[in-house]
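Revision sheet: structure tokens.
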Amino acid sequence: MLQEFTLSEGKAIMNFTLKFCDTRQKILDSYGFHRVVDTFIQKLKKEEIIIYEYYLKEFKTDEAFAKTLIEVFKLLTVVNSDEAQNVHNKYTIFFNDRDLFLELIELLYTFWRGLERYAVVHNSSIGNGLQSVRFMQANELFNELVLSIYRRIEETVIGYQYRVYRQLNAGANAALTLSDINWNCPVEYKGLTSIPFITAVMFKPPFFSYTKRNTRDGIFHEHITNPVENIVLNEDDWFLFPAKVGNMLTFVYFHKDFMVHGFSLANLFELAKEDEYIGKKPDMIYVFGYPDGHEEKRTFYYKDKKNNILIGYANHCDDIDYFGYMKKMLLTLHNVKQMENDRLPIHGAMVNILLKNGTEANIVIMGDSGAGKSESLEAFRTLNEKYIRHMRIVFDDMGYLKKEKDGSIKGYGTEIGAFVRIDDLDPMYAFQQLERGIYTNADKVNARITIPAATYDVIMKGYKVDYFLYANNYTESEQKIKFFDNLDEAIKVFEAGARKAKGTTTEKGLVTSYFANPFGPVQEQEKAGELIQQYFHDMQKNGVKIGEIYTSLAIEGLSKEGPREAAEELFTMINNESN
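Predicted:
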């Protein structure tokens, strides 16, 4: 990032490498503060016309209003209100109606805090631990300075000190350290090499953001030409998050206009260590938000067979402004790549549980979005004290099965976090996640939280599958767990991928998706079909119990009770089988 400050699309990005303000006066003199005030006045003109017109009668132009407002702020940090008026009579208007001035100050402060505020430090080489510590200290200092400016100005205007102080986060609510890294870049992608790598992420939860879209639509198709070949990314506009999606090294390039989606990757995927990508070539590259001149959404993937890299692409448009387009493309790339390696991707959840009677079981629940896989895990959590001694989440949305050398079938995860609907979480658990979560559109339908759920070591350990269940969210059944006697019948149910849509995408009613996985198997059905046959027969040979779990998630009135009842029946059954 070459500029000291940018403000667009409700996002303020501060480059602490180019400009770090370590005093109140430096903040008030900075280009960034002037830019914020200018933008705030334009907002005032649209939304608070009475306040705006009151001051504009005096100052005549927006420029004069902004300039004088900043001047009086600077004065009020060092003198009292009477002394400020004595400096020049043009400041008197702010004190003729102090209540209105206080409202103006509060509106500006609220506007600033309503922005997504990012700080970055760009190191020419990899930063060490001390640099990271200093960065965190600098971030804390900046937060305290902004708070002190706000409090000093307001207290000077009202003439007394507050008696109640709320320690809100007023500085940057997320911070990134960037480093210039040399990687093994094929000539086709030289235009990507100027973008620095994110080497550390810091943020202050809860982090709230609002995006232009709240659901994802459609599937990602294979493209016949390479959309990324020979494009050149501008260092001012792009960031690079080196992620480990499962065991796949992935370079995610994201445009600053979609900052929250790139930043949220930190709660979902493992941030790769420097020695894992220095001088190396990634398995996958995803360019998210490239302005290609097309207004319509363009999202697809390309197989670069020459360089053995899978490419993902999403162009710059309002329609991709939803984290699902970031997450699901990465999972599509991962799944296509895993199938090339003869592994079977699973859209679902897997949990390793140790019951109180000492029985250990590894359960996979498969189903498309809204089928109840995550909600079943949530039900497992709520039943923790009654049945479970210990529980590990291996994957919460996507994983894959691998046939080991000894013939056993083991499950592996792709993500260290979860991107889940707030509405379907137990309220107590949702509140518990406040201190870790990144919230998206928290007060809207399909509100989401991105939270860490497991460590990378856990998701990559490999757990032998004991139960493989299809999540049926639409059929009412007194018996919540049923196993298949006929393997061909089981394969038909799993391949059909039926579910009742819950509003997480634009789909409605009873819908189907091949193998309940529109992120790879749908696009590569021939290869997926071969792997399904192989793995289901191998699981049968290994004694894996294959069946359905009736979550009732899409049945009115049962979205909470259904998964819980199914979980209770499952645990009771596992307990009885072990006795």
